[in-house]
Every structure is written in structure tokens, then in C-alpha cells.
Amino acid sequence: MNIIRGGKILKNYSLLEERLNAVENRLAEKSNLASDITQLSQIVSDLANSLADLKQDQQQHVKDITLLKASIKDLRQDVRNDSLRINTITDQRLTGVCALKAKVELINEKLKDNDPAYEHLETLVASCSKSVSDLRKKVNNVEKNLKSRDEKTFADAIKANLREQNIDCEFLRQTPEVFEHQ
Fold first, then answer.
1. Has residue 58 got a pLDDT over 80?
2. DSSP string, 116-156
3. Does the structure show a pLDDT above 90 at 132?
4. Which of 42, 54, 66, 166 has the smallest number of CB atoms closer than 10 Å to its CB?
């Protein structure tokens, strides 16, 4: 097909059409490029905003880390102080336990020294118990064998009975409490 242009016929319309398509493509590419530039500009703006947010987050993290370090330092100091306090209490208790142990050992030694005296006292108590038992038996015998009711007191009756059995009344004067409880 021949195209007339300014009095000239273009024989190669297809060539012209190709050039026109190429120009349109370039214009379309430029239009796409402009849209791509707009999109890239938006992406760069978003990245700049994200970077600003990241910088704020970083500053906040730095503040948090500083506060955390201060808290850790305070916590370590508290742990050290409490550890020292616990050690002091433990030392005081250990000192008290050692002192108590020494006192117990001293008391044990004194008790060992008192053992012979205690054994002697037990022997005396056993002897006195036997004497008291013997006296009770004699009192019972006196009561049974009391021949006369003319005696004024119980002690007089016992003395009379003891005189009959030839027992010294001096022993009775030394232990009057035995007869008072009867």
C-alpha cells in the first residue's frame, strides 16, 4: 500500500509502521519508566521511614540495655550484701555453737567429777531408806505389841518399846522428822 505524504508516496508503509511502533514503545517505556521511578521513589521513601523507625528502635534498645545493666549491677550488689549478711549470721551461729559445745564439755567434766559424790549420796540414801524401813517395821511392831494404853504419846510408846529392846534413844533425837510424818 502506498501512502501519500506531502505529495510523496511512501512505498514502505511497513517500515514506517515499524518506526511508529518503536516510537510508541519508547514512549510507553518512558511512561513505564516514569511509573517505575514513582514506585522506586515510594519504595525509597518507605525505606527511609523504616530506617528512621529502626534508628528509634535502636535508641530505645540502647536505653533498655543501659537500664538493664544498671539493674544487673544493683542486683549483683544486693546479692553480695545478702551473701555477706548470711556469712556473718552463719559465723555468729557457728561461734555460738562452738561456745555451747565448750560449755557442754565443761559441764560433762563437772558431772564426771560429781559422779563419785552422787554415787556416795545414792549409797547414803539407800542406807537411810533401809534404816527408815527398819524403823517403820519397828514402829509397826511397837503398835502391835503395845501392852499398855497408858502411854501419853506415840513417841513415848516407841521409847518404851525401844528401851525394852535395848536400843539407844539418842538416835531418835537425831531423826525426829521420821516420826513426825507417821
1. yes
2. HHHHHHHHHHHHHHHHHHHHHHHHHHHHHH---S--SSHHH
3. no
4. 166
Q: Is residue 3 within 8 Å of 10, Cβ to Cβ? A: yes
Gap between the Cα atoms of 162 and 175, Å rounded: 15
13-27 pLDDT, tens digit each: 666 677 778 888 887
Written in H, E and C, the secondary structure of 46-104 is HHHHHHHHHHHHHHHHHHHHHHHHHHHHHHHHHHHHHHHHHHHHHHHHHHHHHHHHHHH
Among 182, 134, 142, 132, which Cα is nearest to 164's?
A: 142
What's the grid cell of residue 170? 539418842
Helix (H) or strand (E) holding 5: strand 3-5
In whole angstroms, what is the distance from residue 164 CA to residue 151 CA?
Answer: 14
Each residue's pLDDT tens digit, 153-180: 666 767 777 777 766 555 555 555 544 4
Q: What angle do CA 85, 89, 93 make, to 5 degrees?
A: 170
State the angle between helix axes of 13-145 and 154-164 in degrees (0 to 180), rounded to the nearest 10.
Answer: 70
Cell 510507553 identifies what position? 28
pTM over 0.85: no
Domain boundaries, the chain: 3-145, 146-182
